[in-house]
């Protein structure tokens, strides 16, 4: 009887683990975003805004020439830890779609101000644009919007970037052969 009870508890614990996100998920996602912005700040310290230049100075003072490798290592580690965790599809689908809408507001606000000089992202896009441009600079905000779109699309499709690139190259090869 105790063996059956232990097995039942093990099955319940396993079922709970597959439907809950681990506590490290949000930390990994935060490190992923921070490392992406750190790479931009290290490459373009003058264009990355006040926070970006402070982050760049911190990395230069702390790691010297390795300032290029530290964000890349953090990016790799956080991306790898994000991919191995199971998550509930329905709830994350809603969250990812909401983030995609916010990202679209930011992108349209940036695009409209660049091309026509008008805000196409509404109040949400304008506020996000002003905050991110002040923090990361205009180039950093563009990178954040485009990187966010790519990551959210991959997470919504539940595809690996390698698989998407392979499928894209296969399709381009087929189109090239048709010509």
Q: Overall 3D geometry?
A: globular
DSSP summary, beta strand count: 0
Encode the helix/strand succession as letters: HHHHHHH
Structural class: mainly alpha
Helix coverage percent: over 70%
Main sheet makeup: none
Given as residue ranges, the uncertain stretches (5+ residues, pLDDT < 50) are none
Mean pLDDT metric: 80
Strand content: under 5%
Instruction: State the end-to-end CA separation.
Output: 70 Å
Gyration radius, in Å: 21 Å
Total helical segments: 7
Structure description:
84% of the residues lie in helices and 0% in strands. It has helices spanning 2-19, 24-43, 49-63, 69-84, 89-115, 122-157, 161-178. The longest helix has 36 residues, at 122-157. The chain starts with a helix and ends with a helix.
What's the SSE blueprint?
Blueprint: H1 2-19, H2 24-43, H3 49-63, H4 69-84, H5 89-115, H6 122-157, H7 161-178
Helix pairs in contact: 2-3, 2-4, 2-6, 3-6, 5-6
Give a short overview:
84% of the residues lie in helices and 0% in strands. It is mainly alpha-helical and 179 residues long. The longest helix is centred in the last third of the chain and has 36 residues, at 122-157.
């Amino acid at each position: 009887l105790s063996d059956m009870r232990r097995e039942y508890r093990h099955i319940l614990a396993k079922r709970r683990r597959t439907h809950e996100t681990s506590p490290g998920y949000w930390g990994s996602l935060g490190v992923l975003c921070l490392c992406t912005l750190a790479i931009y700040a290290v490459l373009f310290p003058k264009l990355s805004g006040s926070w970006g230049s402070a982050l760049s100075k911190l990395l230069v003072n702390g790691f010297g020439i390795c300032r290029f490798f530290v964000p890349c290592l953090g990016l790799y580690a956080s991306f790898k830890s994000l991919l191995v965790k199971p998550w509930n599809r329905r709830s994350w689908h809603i969250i990812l779609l909401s983030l995609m809408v916010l990202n679209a507001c930011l992108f349209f606000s940036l695009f409209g101000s660049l091309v026509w000089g008008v805000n196409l992202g509404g109040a949400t896009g304008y506020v996000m644009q002003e905050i991110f441009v002040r923090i990361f600079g205009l180039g950093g905000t563009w990178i954040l919007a485009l990187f966010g779109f790519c990551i959210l699309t991959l997470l919504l499709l539940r595809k690996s970037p390698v698989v998407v690139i392979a499928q894209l190259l296969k399709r381009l090869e087929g189109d090239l052969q048709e010509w």
